[in-house]
Amino acid sequence: MRSRAWSFGCALLVVSYFVAPARAADSTTGEPGPWKYSGTLGATLSQSAFSDNWKGGDKGSIVWVAKADFTMQRQFGPKYNMSNSLKLAYGQTSKQVQNPNDPADTNWDRPEKSTDAIAFESLSRWTLHKFADPFFSFNAESQFRDQSSPVGTIWLNPIKIKETAGIAHVIEKTEESEILSRLGFGFRQTFATSFVNPPTTERGSFTSNDGGVDWTTTVKKPLLEKRVLFKGTFGFFKPLFYSKSDALEAYDAQRLVTDPAREAVSDYWKSIDVNLEGAFTAQITQALQVGLAAQLVYDKFDTAANLDIPLADPALDTEIRRNIRKQGQFREALSLGLTYQLF
Asked: Contacts from 44-49 at CB under 8 Å and sequence distance 24+?
């Protein structure tokens, strides 16, 4: 799994290299004008069902995903450009399972979440028509239902916000494509809730802050004579400080006393966070679209960990283990569904 995930990451970087031109194209953003809007709604559904006596023992399934993608962009003047984007996605999967009370019978199990994402970005760029433009960006991410804990579900959790300022370089800019690379310093805030007493549903809210160097490259590029559209985001974040670092060091100091052989976790937050995401879409008809999307995330220690739990509480061990991921997380989705262009 780990080798496949990192192989995909390398492949995405190769794609970003080849879709970029050998030299920088026109870096202008057009003449000042009104807002330009884009909005797309999409839905995919797959379903299969088998009778209880089906000889192959196959089980049916229902998978549905709903998506929405909105963008707003405006060149306010010769030297200022602003773009906003909002992406929403949610989906569930339900399967036929054997009835524990009657092995000859099957039931549909409770739907489980398979897709869940909320992402907003606002990017302000001072277009000086030089090699690099100053920029400021605001990002907010969350999910509709947090089901990472077996205790229960928490709505809109966690909420992660990032503000970044630095310089941006336009590698390519045309009416149909854009490749933009940004380098700056970012501050991140996490607002989250967790179950602080696992046997019950008692919850505790907490916040954390960190900051570091942020490098993000976004790609929008038509391919295969404009029959396929590639959109990619390649993000790297190197944390330099973390508001809960002292809590992690205190945790290590106490736990290492009783178990000197255990691995210290107080430096995990210093690892580079990686987010490589790419999607290929092809519009078969006006309403029918086929897509292939994949994402590789490496986040060794998730800052959405509640470190406000007392050191002596066993729930702290559970919370820290739940937010440590030493290997890359990989997601892939191949879809065929309906889309509707709002504007």
From this structure: 44/91, 44/335, 44/336, 44/337, 44/338, 45/337, 49/96
Q: 133 near 167, Cβ under 8 Å?
A: yes
**Region class of 229: left (phi > 0), else alpha (psi between -120 and 50), else beta:** beta
Of 333, 282, 294, 277, which is closest to residue 141 (Cα–Cα)?
277
Structure token pair of residue 122: 């606002």
Cα 68 to chain centroid, rounded? 15
Percentages (nearest 5) of helix, strand, coil residues in the chain: 15, 55, 30
What pTM does this model have? 0.85
Higher-confidence position of 315 and 57: 315
Residue with tokens 């295969």: 224
Cis peptide preceding 158, ω within 30 of 0: yes
Q: How far apart are CA 43 and CA 279, in angstroms?
A: 16
Tell me the pLDDT band of 40, cut-offs 50, 70 and 90.
Answer: very high
Q: Would you call 4 helix, strand, or coil by DSSP?
A: helix
CA distance 241 to 188: 10
What are the tens digits of pLDDT across the range 85-101? 999 999 999 988 877 77
Tokens 């390398």 appear where?
Answer: 10
Cα–Cα dist 101/294, whole Å? 40
Between CA 252 and CA 242 the distance in angstroms is: 16
Burial level of 143, CB count in 10 A (0-12/13-18/19+)?
A: buried
Is-contact 39 342, C-beta < 8 A?
Answer: yes
Token pair recorded at residue 273: 């966070």
Owner of token pair 């006596």: 53
Classify 16 as helix, strand or coil. helix
Torsion sign over Cα 297, 114, 218, 335: positive
Outline where DSSP puts E strands in 199-272. 202-223, 228-242
Q: What is the DSSP letter of 264?
A: P
Radius of gyration (Cα) for the chain, nearest Å? 23
Burial of 2 (0-12, 13-18, 19+ CB in 10 A): exposed
